[in-house]
Amino acid sequence: MRSRADARIRHPRHERRGEARLPAAVATLIAIALYVALPQQLLVAPRYVLPALELLLLVPLIAINPKRLTRQTRTFRVLSLALVLLIAGGNLTALGILVHELVHAEVQDGASLLVAALQVWLTNIIAFGLAYWELDRGGPVARTQSSRGELPLADFRFSQDENDDAVEEVADGASKACDWVPTLVDYLYISVTNSTAFSPTDTMPLSTRAKILMSVESVAALLTSLLVIARAVSILH
Question: What is the pTM of this model?
Fold first, then answer.
């Protein structure tokens, strides 16, 4: 276990090592797999078209930064944002079709709808978590490779950003004390809490785009929870 004395030198900003590539790649592959497993009636194109496009975008991103996210070019930025947009767009479209099927179609297989609703909900968490991760403070590369004075305005305010005046064991892990920066896990946590509480919890959106994204995610999660799951359960009974 790391001691408090290590707190000031344990974050990747200090060595400009960059955030690890693996977590984001795994999250993306899980989202792709969840989409592939959706029922055919929820897809607007042949099953493997959208996943193939997403994989085509993921491969060059891994090639540019295979182990750690330390290089950022204009092409890298466009590809990474396009990948997140495809994942989120495909999933929201599937949610829209699912709601339409439940409202206007004669649905008999409630069990498959429950599974599909869970798949859409999980993909929603991953997609928006990746979106927050890509946008906040210039993205994962900028957050570790640029000085704080060069970073764009933050989209989110984390607890660590304001804990420097707390008791020592808390303040030693604050952004001002140890140069802490959020990683993918922190943004996925925002996405999970926003999809379950339908509102921010300990991390506050600051920018207009962050508030819009969180609103869209909350509404999508609410539709999944209240309409889709409730309707599917009623079919089961």
Answer: 0.89
